[in-house]
Design a protein that fits this description.
This protein has 6 helices and no strands. It is elongated. The termini are far apart. About 15% of the residues are buried.
């Protein structure tokens, strides 16, 4: 899962303060971290739903990722979004394999373990989907409110112009 890139006219999100990492959480890490380790980590997490594999891909100790998740709410939100994406991939892959079967040359896939993993994380997935749906609903409601307000303003302006344009009765 890549972080959304700002489009034209959209400012980049400001980063908050960085998490202080103790030396023991840096064990087995590269001498110099890739400054994009968060994106690498989240992409691999979305692909695999596996924190250890995502940490290896990003060149970090998994403990660093957990610590940053605890200390940085934005990273925690992105983490859960990546996991949700990963579980969606796993659901689709499992469904495909159940429907189509597997060939002898296909990569090994343990359907039983996939189903157990999906069952174990059912509540997390449901919570993240509900949060995503709620955010979508809030954005839609805000957009509708803005459109209604703009319509009211245009209506008031039209009424004002009609009053100004009406012939004055000097009676």
């Amino acid at each position: 899962m890549t972080q959304p890139k700002p489009g034209p006219g959209k400012p980049r999100a400001k980063r908050g303060p960085r998490t202080n990492i103790k030396p023991q959480l840096r064990e087995n890490e590269k001498e110099r971290l890739n400054r994009h380790w968060r994106g690498l980590f989240l992409d691999k997490l979305a692909e695999t739903s596996n924190v250890a594999a995502a940490a290896r891909e990003a060149g970090i100790n998994p403990s660093r990722a957990y610590k940053v998740r605890r200390c940085e709410p934005d990273f925690a939100r992105q983490w859960y979004e990546a996991l949700l994406e990963g579980y969606e991939h796993l659901e689709l892959e499992t469904l495909h394999r159940l429907r189509m079967g597997t060939g002898k040359d296909d990569p090994k896939f343990d359907i039983g373990n996939a189903l157990r993993l999906l069952a174990l994380h059912k509540e997390t997935v449901a919570r993240e989907r509900a949060l995503r749906d709620d955010e979508d609903e809030d954005a839609i409601l805000a957009s509708l409110d803005a459109k209604i307000e703009a319509m009211r303003a245009r209506e008031e302006e039209a009424a004002r112009l009609l009053i100004e344009a009406a012939p004055q009765d000097d009676g």
